[in-house]
Amino acid sequence: MHQLGATRSSLKADHLLQTPDTFIRTPLPGATGVDFIVHTGARLGASFTQMTAEFAADGTLATASPGVERFIYMLEGQIELEVSGGTNFTLTPGKFAYIPADTSHWARARKVSRAVVIEKRYQTVADTDRPRIIVGDQATIHSESLGGDEALQVKHLMPDGVNYDFAVNIMTYDPGAALAMVEVHVMEHGLLMLEGGGIYRLGDSWYPVTAGDFIWMGPYCPQWFGALGKTPAKYLIYKDWYRHPLGG
């Protein structure tokens, strides 16, 4: 039962913590049988949009708007993805796809499904190759320690290269593990807690966070995380990448 307006959700100038008790669904053009939880976007000041897409059985999602690249990460269910040229992929939990801007595609849910959908207007760089379609499974990606700390592991879902203008990683913390420093940087983040929980410092505020929470961090927002509890904490995190701050 709602407790007289109480929530862990919080909006500040440089960050947002959005908890599931405050999620509101909305339909969007280009989709049928899909409800979207729009976590962040231009109205918040973000340079990207991150949403949770909730598909009914046979719900469909059409090609992104012109100039917009799309990343899909499956949380639940099964989606069939068809990309121009007749290439088909099956996405199940933990699998993901990156579709470059202006690539014709559609996705259809074979049953009730949920997916992270990240969209960004692609920033071109002269004399670079066009990005390629990426389809993968986080379970098969090699995990690396962060800063030599074996209790803090990272998986890179996107290729590293100047032709890609954002990165998506999965971070996993053993119970009690924490970032070695408070980070302050030009990149912004979109973060979805997948498992476990802990304490997040955002700006001058400290928040308990748990699976299902979403966090947006603006550029230069002071940020730090420490895992609490008896099970690992795991999150999916977006950041803009490989582009000069002046936009070229």
In short:
By secondary structure, the protein is mostly beta strands.
Question: Can you put this structure into words, describing what you see?
Answer:
- With 248 residues, the protein is mostly beta strands.
- It folds into 2 domains: 23-139, Jelly Rolls, CATH 2.60.120.10; 142-240, Jelly Rolls.
- It has no helices and 20 strands.
- A hairpin with an 8-residue loop joins strand 3 and strand 4.
Keywords:
Jelly Rolls, mainly beta, 2 domains, nine-stranded antiparallel β-sheet, 52% strand, eight-stranded antiparallel β-sheet, 20 strands, 248 residues
Q: What is the overall pLDDT average?
A: 96
Fourth-level CATH superfamily of the largest domain: Jelly Rolls
Point out poorly predicted stretches. none
Write the CATH architecture name of the largest domain. Answer: Sandwich
Q: Please state the structural category.
A: mainly beta
Strand content: over 45%
The CATH class name of the largest domain reads Mainly Beta
Rounded to the nearest angstrom, the distance between the terminal CA atoms is 50 Å
**CATH overall fold name of the largest domain:** Jelly Rolls
Helix content: under 10%
Blueprint (SSEs and pairs):
Elements: E1 10-12, E2 15-18, E3 31-40, E4 49-61, E5 68-76, E6 79-83, E7 87-91, E8 95-99, E9 105-109, E10 113-121, E11 134-137, E12 144-146, E13 149-156, E14 166-173, E15 189-195, E16 197-202, E17 205-210, E18 214-217, E19 223-228, E20 233-240
Antiparallel strand pairs: 1-2, 2-18, 3-4, 4-9, 4-10, 5-8, 5-10, 6-7, 6-9, 8-11, 12-13, 13-14, 14-20, 15-18, 15-20, 16-17, 16-19
